[in-house]
Specification:
The complex is a heterodimer of chains A (148) and B (668). Chain A is an alpha/beta fold. Chain A contains five helices and four strands, in the order αβαβαβαβα. Chain A has one domain. The mean pLDDT of chain A is 89. Chain B has five domains: 132 residues, Rossmann fold; 160 residues, FAD/NAD(P)-binding domain, CATH 3.50.50; 82 residues, no CATH class; 161 residues, 3-Layer(bba) Sandwich (FAD/NAD(P)-binding domain), CATH 3.50.50; 57 residues, Alpha-Beta Plaits, CATH 3.30.70.20. In chain B, the strands form eleven sheets. A five-stranded parallel beta sheet of chain B has the order 8-7-6-16-27. A five-stranded parallel beta sheet of chain B has the order 18-25-19-20-21. A four-stranded parallel beta sheet of chain B has the order 2-1-3-4, with helices on both faces. In chain B, α6 links the parallel β6 and β7. In chain B, α1 runs parallel beside α5, α5 runs antiparallel to α18 and α12 runs parallel beside α13. The model of chain B has no long low-confidence stretch (mean pLDDT 95). The chains are: A alpha/beta (148), B alpha/beta (668).
């Protein structure tokens, strides 16, 4: 497995997809047989606003090369305005990561609506390409973020 | 607490999953887990034998949790939960691992990696499931009353349907009379019914129905509560007239010396400061416009200290002298009324963009009017008694240009969408104009004619053949004044010729937008709307009458512009939806809601700040957060904001998600 990995780097990307928009878009992409790398690993959450920044950092710590948070378009949130909260949180996490010298592009926030299956596949492919170029994340080699 | 005997059921879905994912290998790998009692596969898990397999296994292995690896949870989560419930397992101990839409289908070219991913998804789902709690649906009581906001044809229809089924209904309208836009129309396409004739019986039914409480000249002040239990504050605006005494005789209007532009006639006529909205108004009561009434304005200036009060001198009060009923009291009788209802139907309607927004099309000239204004000039009950006259000089126009798609289908100057009704009402107006002015000429400038309703295309053909309306395919570029005529410049896109035409009047089919104040109302109701103010439905195709807030429904053009036929059908549909909800003794809702651990909660209130539903309060005595289960929708915004993990959404708890992350982020 390790040898293979050296041959071609396949970034592990953990996705947090909101139930009403981005998860639906992922279903739609699948139904239309639009291809994207299997290294995208999805978690369905009810709303992008429920994604604690800890989840994103934990994913990077545990080995993911990048994380993506998918929510409804601004104004379309099933829970009125959850996506705005997600946007604020992601902005803060990115700022903090950057100020600590980490690559803040390893966290991506995207609005993908339930009718945007093609966009889902495109975003997954493009983001994977970007992370491939960047190479493996060095975040995972840090034991903890000042915890135990 | 933590599950130890989990059953994992992997679906082949024919070849949809098994054609890519090696389901046997997946079952073997998953079966190695200590907490898994059985991992097996079946060709169609959603089929009856598939469900039977799950039921039998739950009993045989005494399973305490089930993971079904199949399609998207939107399809069969309920099926599988019901199957588990039949076997005596709490349905919330069933989780779906989506290995079709999010694994086998998009990765159909990479079977090995898809198999690995399927194993990983199932392992992550097991990690989440292990800490799932058994839950029961939450029951909330229902108040068997309904509120309808908006007294146009949609609101009238919805209120009548609800009231006829025995539900006490409150109808709120902000204007002095119900009737809305439809009541102002000249005639309706394609049948050419007179809306005053067909709508007045319904309006009178509303006024006289024992189950309808009608509040006109009233607005929604505040809404709180949740499905089945809304509390609504209604502001009755000041009329300065005692409606219990007012007989609607109209004598006051004759003597009043102060004028204003009539809202009812869209500014095409004047009204008095004291006025009854129209002759057939329901209720037939007078109101005083406080901004125009000479006495009220005088009183206001006295109050503000700008003028000294004059003792023993009457300011105007001419209306008082002629009011035999002694109804006019000039007292500010604004009041707030509180009502409790179980369901709300929003039927706030539409308006059109003002002509002034389109100066290149001459919108600032008096004889260039919107189609709704022209409706009043064509209406037999309107200011010109049905024979259109130019607002500028009162002459009968002998040649009119009807311009389609003004602002519609034009994202740069208006809106991107088609306003749907303009083609048909312009066809109707051109027809009616030719009928009223037989020697007049009607020219319609269009991009496409969209006549897709019952009898619509025939109506269009009739306007050409019987009434000689001339249709020119082309967008108008400019309208400007030449003498007392208006010059219309356009390109006929069928012949390629440039057209210049002098006309007496121009009618603009300006784009329809949601009615004024809808965004403020939507915020009070906590329902979403788009950038044009149209209310958002849950699902455009399958749930067009429901808003994401349970218990609040949409009827008519508040959702999007539509014709009267569709508006009335939807109003009845929304009423049926509300009835179905109100006919239940108790309402059930998903128990996947936020829950507070009072042992950890510090009462900081950060959860309360982010809750979009106002579902969280801080108990002042114990100083901990308390969740109102009936209001909470389970979005989880609170849990991400909680600094102590005290507030969590049940079965989406932080440790559960973290465990999933750990499985999925791992590289091997």
């Amino acid at each position: 497995m390790n040898e293979e990995k050296e041959k071609e780097f396949e970034p592990v990307i953990v996705g947090f997809f909101c139930n009403w928009c981005t998860s639906a878009a992922a279903d739609m992409a699948g139904t239309a047989r639009l291809h994207y790398p299997p290294s995208i690993r999805p978690i369905r959450v009810m709303c992008s606003s429920t994604v604690d920044p800890v989840y994103l950092i934990r994913a990077l710590q545990e080995g993911a090369d990048a994380t993506i948070l998918g929510g409804c378009h601004p104004g379309d949130c099933h829970y009125i305005n959850g996506n705005y909260k997600a946007r604020r949180r992601v902005a803060i996490v990115k700022t903090v990561l950057k100020s600590l010298g980490f690559d803040d592009e390893r966290i991506l926030l995207e609005w993908i609506s339930g009718s945007e299956g093609p966009k889902f596949a495109r975003v997954m492919n493009e983001y994977t390409e970007l992370i491939k170029k960047k190479g493996p994340s060095d975040f995972k080699y840090i034991d903890s973020l000042g915890g135990d | 607490m933590v599950m130890k005997r989990i059953g994992v059921f992997i679906c082949h879905c024919g070849r949809n999953i098994a054609g890519t994912v090696d389901v046997k290998k997946v079952a073997e790998e998953i079966g190695k887990r200590e907490d898994v009692a059985i991992a097996t596969t079946y060709v169609f898990m959603c089929s009856e034998p598939g469900q039977k397999l799950i039921e039998d296994s739950i009993k045989k292995y005494d399973l305490d949790g089930v993971v079904v690896a199949n399609c998207s949870p939107t399809l069969h989560e309920r099926t599988m939960r019901n199957a588990a419930a039949r076997a005596g397992l709490n349905p919330y101990r069933v989780e779906i691992a989506n290995i079709r839409e999010q694994c086998s289908w998009p990765h159909e070219n990479e079977p090995e990696k898809a198999t690995d991913k399927a194993i990983r998804i199932i392992n992550a789902t097991i990690e989440k499931l292990k800490a799932n709690a058994s839950l029961e649906p939450i029951e909330v009581p229902v108040i068997r009353r309904a509120l309808v906001i908006g007294g146009g044809v949609a609101g009238i229809q919805a209120a009548l349907d609800l009231a006829d089924s025995g539900i006490e209904t409150i109808l709120v309208e902000r204007e002095p009379s119900i009737g809305g836009n439809m009541f102002r129309l000249s005639e309706t396409f394609p049948t050419l019914d007179c809306p005053q004739c067909i709508l007045t019986p319904k309006m009178n039914d509303v006024a006289n129905h024992p189950n309808i409480k009608l509040y006109t000249y009233s607005e929604i002040e505040d809404v709180s509560g949740y499905m089945g239990n809304f509390k609504v504050k209604i502001k009755k605006k000041a009329t300065y007239v005692d409606w219990d005494k007012c007989t609607g005789c109209g004598e006051c209007m004759k003597v009043c010396p102060a004028y204003a532009l009539s809202e009812y006639d869209f500014g095409m006529a004047k009204r008095k400061a004291i006025y009854i909205q129209n002759e057939q108004a329901v209720p037939l009561k007078a109101v005083i416009d406080e901004n125009k009434c000479i006495k009220l304005q005088f009183d206001k200036k006295v109050r503000e200290g700008k003028i000294k009060p004059k003792k023993h001198v009457r300011i105007c009060e001419k209306c008082v002298d002629v009011c035999d009923a002694q109804a006019i009291h000039f007292k500010n009788n604004e009041e707030i009324i509180e009502e409790e209802v179980g369901a709300i139907i929003v039927a706030t309607g539409f308006e059109v963009m003002p002509a002034e927004k389109f100066p290149e099309l001459g919108g600032h000239y008096p004889d260039v009017v919107t189609a709704l204004q022209f409706e009043r000039l064509l209406a037999p009950s309107g200011p010109t008694n049905g024979i259109p006259r130019r607002p500028s000089d009162g002459k009968i126009p002998k040649r009119i240009a009807f311009i389609h798609c003004v602002g519609s289908r034009d994202p740069e100057h208006g809106v991107p969408y088609c306003s749907r009704i303009c083609c048909m009402y312009l066809i109707k107006q051109a027809t009616l104009y030719r009928h009223a002015v037989p020697d007049g000429e009607a020219y319609a400038f269009y991009i496409d004619i969209r006549s897709n309703g019952k009898g619509y295309e025939e109506f269009y053909e009739r306007s050409k053949e019987e009434y000689g309306v001339v249709y020119i395919r082309g967008k108008v570029g400019k309208v400007y004044k030449v003498g007392d005529k208006y010059r219309v410049q356009a390109v006929d896109t069928l012949t390629g010729r440039v057209i210049e035409m002098d006309v007496d009047m121009v009618v603009l089919a300006t784009a329809a937008v949601a009615s004024k104040g809808i965004k403020e109302l939507a915020k009070k109701l906590r329902i979403p709307y788009d950038e044009w103010g149209w209310l958002k439905e849950v699902h455009l195709k399958l749930r067009p009458l429901e808003t994401p807030v349970a218990g609040i429904f949409i009827a008519g053009t508040a959702q999007f512009i539509k014709d009267i036929t569709d508006t009335v059908s939807e109003a009845s549909g929304a009423a049926a939806k509300a009835m179905a909800m109100l006919s239940k003794p108790k309402l059930e809702k998903e128990p996947l809601l936020a829950k507070v651990d009072p042992e950890i909660c510090a009462g900081c209130g950060r959860c309360k700040e982010v809750c979009p539903y106002g579902a969280i309060d801080i108990d002042p005595r114990r100083h901990v957060a308390v969740v109102n289960e009936a209001l909470c929708e389970g979005c989880g915004a609170c849990s991400a904001n909680c600094p102590t993990t005290a507030i969590q959404v049940v079965n989406f708890k932080k440790p559960q998600i973290i465990n999933m992350v750990d499985v999925l982020a791992e590289v091997f």
